[in-house]
Amino acid sequence: MKRPLLYMALLMAALCGCSRDGRAPVRLPDAFFDLKGFMESEAQHLSQTQPRALKRIAIDGQSEEKVFDSLDYKKELDIFSRSDINKTAWLDKYQVDSLFQDGKLQLVRYTAQDKSLKTHLLEVKYSGGQVSEVHIQNRTESLVADVGQELWYRPGQGYALSSRQSTALTKEKEIEVEVEFQK
Questions:
Q1: Is 65 in contact with 55 (CB distance < 8 Å)?
Q2: Nearest by Cα to 42 from 105, 129, 131
Q3: Within 10 A of 105 (CB to CB), how many other CB atoms are there?
C-alpha cells in the first residue's frame, strides 16, 4: 500500500518542478511560440547594433517622421512582448494551424477561441527556417472603452503598429507607428 503513495509523491514532485538533489527542474517545452523570448532577443540584438531608424507616427491622420541614430528597443518592442500567449492555462484557449510547403514550416497561426482574451491572433511566418514576420491582433473591450491593435514585426526590416481606441466619452482615436531600419 505504501508503493502507490511513493509513486504519487514522486509524480507530484515532478509536476511541481521540485528537486530533492538541488538540481534545476526539467523545463517543459513551450506550449506556443515564445513571443516574449523572441522579442527580448530581438530587442537585445537591436540595442547592440543600433540600426539607424526612420520612425513615422500618425495620430488621427496628422503625421510626422524622424530619423533616429538610436532607440530604446527594449521599450519599443515591449508592446509585442505583452501579447505573449505562451501560458499553460491557455493551452485549450487557442486553435493552432500550421502551413508547410515542400516539408518546410511557412506559417503558424494561433487564433483565440475565447474572445475575452486580449490577443485574438498571433501569426508567425517563416522563411528559410527563420522567423520572417510576426503579426498580432489584440482587442480589449469593456463598457467604457474599445481598443483594437494590430502589430507587425519583420526582423532586420522594422515594425509597425496600428491602434484604434474609442471610449464612451470621446471620439475614436487612431494611432499608427512605423519604424523602418535603414542600412
A1: yes
A2: 131
A3: 14
In the predicted model, what is the mean pLDDT of residues 114-128?
Answer: 94
Output the nine-digit C-alpha cell for 7.
509513486
Break the chain into its structural domains and give their ranges.
33-182
**pTM of the shown model:** 0.79
CA contacts within 13 A on the Cβ side of 170: 11
* Residues 95, 86: Cα–Cα separation, whole Å: 13
Report CA-CA distances (Å) from 167 to 115, 126, 142, 164.
Answer: 19, 37, 9, 10
> Long-range contacts: 59-66, Cβ < 8 Å, 24+?
59/173, 59/174, 59/175, 60/173, 60/174, 60/175, 61/174, 63/176
Selection from 106, 111, 150 nearest residue 131 by Cα: 106
